[in-house]
Specification:
about 280 residues; alpha/beta; Rossmann fold; 9 helices
């Protein structure tokens, strides 16, 4: 009897780095749960993987909606006896301040709250799987979140929203490693040729397009690097690491205060309590 394949949940897996990573992992023998908000794109990603002999299934969810996150997490737990890797990659930049149906600022919801909730609701399954890990994908920029105004009701900009949730994700990773058994590591893929910044206002959009033309790496290469990081973490037991592409760097200076990790954790627990 063949061994049960490793299982990975990959969010934002219908486009860009996420889709390429799902394809790469499936090619390496993993069973991949493709998480995305568009049903047709999820189905297309699964078809592409299975047509090449890989194993995949779709999980349709808007990860800015906590009820959707809870539903997908519960479905994964119901269907699978193991979870070797949770790849938190989903991201969408909303240029105008917009609240979700549950009352959360949209960038914060998909970038941070959805990731935190998915990780916590899958925590037991991860704990039951030897050698499991969480890998969270972030960009370069970050700025400390003001927990007196976490949803940016004052002085909103899309860039500030992005930088804040990227700080929060990395602080959550550190606090998770302090509190839990499952290793959580951070992956910064560098400048990758994706569409994530396609709606940036000018002149930033033009600058990104030029930079991508000369310095951007293909999503397939980024997926290879992400996969190699997963393998390295599993082999070496790395936790609380920051990978800049495939290079394990010293801990980032997040310009945090000693109490930030515990305070962010408490705020996140209180905010997500209805879905925990």
């Amino acid at each position: 009897m063949s061994a049960t394949p490793k299982t990975a949940v990959v969010t934002g897996a219908t486009d860009g780095i996420g889709r390429a990573a799902a394809v790469r992992l499936a090619r390496g023998g993993w069973h991949v749960v493709v998480v995305g908000r568009n049903q047709e794109r999820c189905a297309d990603a699964v078809r592409s993987i299975t047509a090449s002999g890989g194993s995949a299934e779709a999980a349709v969810a808007d990860l800015a909606v906590m009820a959707d996150v809870r539903r997908v997490a519960d479905a994964v737990r119901a269907r699978h006896a193991r979870l070797d890797a949770l790849v938190l990659n989903a991201n969408a930049i909303t240029q105008e301040r917009r609240l979700t149906s549950e009352g959360f600022e949209a960038n914060l919801a998909v970038g941070y709250l959805g990731r935190a909730l998915l990780q916590w609701r899958l925590e037991a399954l991860l704990a039951e799987t030897p050698g499991s890990q969480v890998l969270t994908v972030v960009g370069l920029d970050h700025v400390r979140m003001d927990l007196t105004d976490p949803q940016l009701a004052r002085q909103f900009t899309a860039r500030k929203a992005l930088m804040r949730w990227q700080w929060a994700v990395q602080m959550l990773a550190r606090e998770s490693n302090r509190r839990g058994a499952c290793p959580v590591n951070v992956f910064m893929p560098g400048l990758v040729k994706t569409k994530i910044l396609a709606n940036e206002p000018q002149p930033m959009r033009a600058l990104v397009q030029v930079a991508n033309l000369f310095f951007g790496i293909p999503v397939e290469r980024s997926a290879e690097e992400l996969s190699s990081v997963l393998e390295r973490v599993a082999t070496a037991g790395i936790r609380d690491g920051y990978f800049s592409r495939t290079v394990l760097k010293p801990p980032r200076d997040l310009r945090s205060k000693p109490e930030d990790g515990a305070e962010l954790w408490s705020w996140t627990e209180a905010t997500l309590r209805p879905w925990l």
